């Protein structure tokens, strides 16, 4: 065999080891018992909103039906014309006794629009336990009890949780959900086993008010693209401990076009690359199918490629089963498309630092800081000057 064939064979062995390890991690994760806790301090949920997509009504409604004694929900938009406002008013009418508050403010704390929204919501928070939750996640009634319970241990400073993708009925949304369920979810669990946890996942972040203020509040995150990673990084540097709750939330995947899917995944890839460059580079071992194909093309053993392909397909099947998602032939037939797209995104993520987010274009520097690349630049500069 040529040197390239040998190199790809080694890469294939690493990929097989990763996928087998990922299968073990996912099967053991869901089987870990969650201790029922009586720890239930008053909680404020902060939910930054932008638009009414992502099945917003169903997602917000699930937070209104928590089996929890006392909690506040603070939701926020940058403009009173945001379509999310209508959804919030509908829920206020349906749950008149719920402590649900809407904040409308376009004040900017930094380049990150989500964190600016959170900084505005924070001023309305009543309680000392804060739950930051993305707008597009849906949860069960036991969610709050489960994600807050780890804070009973004073050594725990930040709690996060994983999520699974629930797709709309189109191919682009299905491919997006496959990325979450077959790449993000298992790789996060493998990382937890190998390295521990020193970062959060943006779908859910739970901490005490004192912890957030000790690291500089939301203002310390406002210039960064990966605000969840930055939060965990600052808390661990301060001596805090980060844990992953044994709870998986649902996130709506609503990509309607290839462009929607591609730009979203490219932003995610460049976020990961700036936050963890070495880990992201070696994430190429997760691309089992392209590795198998290239190995055969350069003269590697066909048997090794077939074995790796079998492990990859078994992983797709098992991850769906572990996440209680249906497995169909259509899904399995999309695995080659999914892996080809992942390879393209992985390669293109190294060729630039531009990302598109909420209709705006940003540049990301080597430290992960955002710089607006459109007309919001002047406004952001003026806002920063006012704050300082």
List the helices and strands and how they pair.
Layout: H1 3-29, E1 43-48, H2 56-64, E2 71-77, H3 84-94, E3 99-104, H4 113-122, E4 129-133, E5 137-138, H5 143-148, E6 156-167, H6 171-195, E7 204-208, H7 209-214, H8 227-237, E8 241-253, H9 258-275, H10 277-282, H11 288-297, H12 302-322, H13 329-333, H14 335-348, E9 354-357, E10 360-364, E11 370-372, H15 376-387
Parallel strand pairs: 1-2, 1-4, 2-3, 6-8
Antiparallel strand pairs: 4-7, 5-8, 6-7, 9-10, 10-11
Average pLDDT metric: 88
* Number of separate strands: 11
Under CATH, the topology of the domain at 34-256 can be stated as Spore Coat Polysaccharide Biosynthesis Protein SpsA, Chain A
Q: What is the CA–CA distance across the termini?
A: 63 Å
**Helix count, DSSP H or I runs of 4 or more residues:** 15
CATH superfamily membership of the domain at 34-256, which one? Spore Coat Polysaccharide Biosynthesis Protein SpsA, Chain A
Q: Tell me the radius of gyration.
A: 21 Å
**Strand arrangement in the largest pleated sheet:** 3-2-1-4-7-6-8-5
Top-tier CATH class of the domain at 34-256: Alpha Beta
User: Helix content range of the residues, please?
Assistant: 40-55%
Order of helices and strands: HEHEHEHEEHEHEHHEHHHHHHEEEH
What do you see in this structure?
By secondary structure, the chain is an alpha/beta fold. The protein has a domain at 34-256: Spore Coat Polysaccharide Biosynthesis Protein SpsA, Chain A, CATH 3.90.550.10. The protein has 15 helices and eleven strands. The chain has helices at residues 3-29, 56-64, 84-94, 113-122, 143-148, 171-195, 209-214, 227-237, 258-275, 277-282, 288-297, 302-322, 329-333, 335-348, 376-387; strands at 43-48, 71-77, 99-104, 129-133, 137-138, 156-167, 204-208, 241-253, 354-357, 360-364, 370-372. The strands form two sheets. It has an eight-stranded mixed β-sheet, sandwiched between helices. Helix 6 (171-195) crosses helix 12 (302-322). The chain starts with a helix and ends with a helix.
């Amino acid at each position: 065999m040529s040197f390239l064939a040998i190199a790809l064979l080694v890469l294939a062995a690493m990929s097989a080891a990763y996928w087998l390890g990922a299968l073990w991690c996912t099967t053991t994760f869901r089987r870990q018992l969650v201790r029922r806790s009586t720890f239930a301090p008053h909680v404020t949920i902060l939910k930054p909103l932008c638009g009414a997509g992502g099945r917003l009504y169903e997602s917000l409604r699930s937070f209104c039906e928590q089996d929890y004694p006392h909690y506040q929900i603070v939701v926020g938009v940058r403009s009173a014309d945001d379509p999310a406002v209508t959804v919030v008013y509908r829920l206020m009418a349906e749950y008149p006794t719920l402590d649900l508050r809407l904040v409308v403010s376009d004040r900017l704390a930094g380049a990150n629009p989500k964190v600016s929204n959170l900084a505005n919501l924070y001023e309305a928070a009543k309680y000392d336990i804060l739950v930051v939750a993305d707008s597009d996640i849906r949860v069960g009634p036991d969610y709050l009890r489960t994600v807050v319970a780890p804070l009973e241990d004073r050594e725990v400073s930040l709690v996060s949780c994983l999520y699974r993708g629930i797709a709309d009925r189109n191919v682009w949304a299905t491919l997006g959900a496959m990325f979450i369920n077959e790449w993000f979810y298992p790789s996060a669990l493998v990382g937890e086993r190998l390295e521990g946890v020193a970062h959060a996942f943006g779908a859910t972040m739970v901490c005490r008010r004192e912890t957030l203020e000790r690291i500089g509040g939301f203002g310390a995150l406002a210039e960064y693209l990966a605000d969840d990673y930055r939060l965990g990084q600052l808390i661990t540097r301060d001596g805090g401990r980060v844990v992953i709750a044994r709870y998986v939330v649902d996130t709506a995947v609503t990509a309607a076009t290839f462009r929607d899917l591609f730009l979203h995944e490219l932003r995610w890839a460049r976020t990961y690359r700036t936050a963890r460059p070495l880990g992201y580079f070696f994430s190429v071992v997760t691309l089992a199918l392209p590795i198998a194909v290239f190995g055969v093309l350069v003269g590697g053993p066909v048997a090794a490629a077939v074995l790796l392909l079998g492990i990859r397909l078994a992983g797709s099947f098992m991850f769906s089963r572990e996440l209680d998602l249906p497995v169909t032939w259509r899904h399995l037939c999309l695995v080659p498309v999914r892996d080809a797209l992942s390879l393209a995104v992985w390669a293109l993520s190294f060729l630039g630092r531009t990302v598109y987010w909420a209709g705006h274009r940003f540049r990301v520097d080597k430290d992960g800081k955002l710089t607006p690349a459109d007309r919001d630049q002047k406004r952001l500069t003026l806002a920063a000057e006012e704050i300082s």
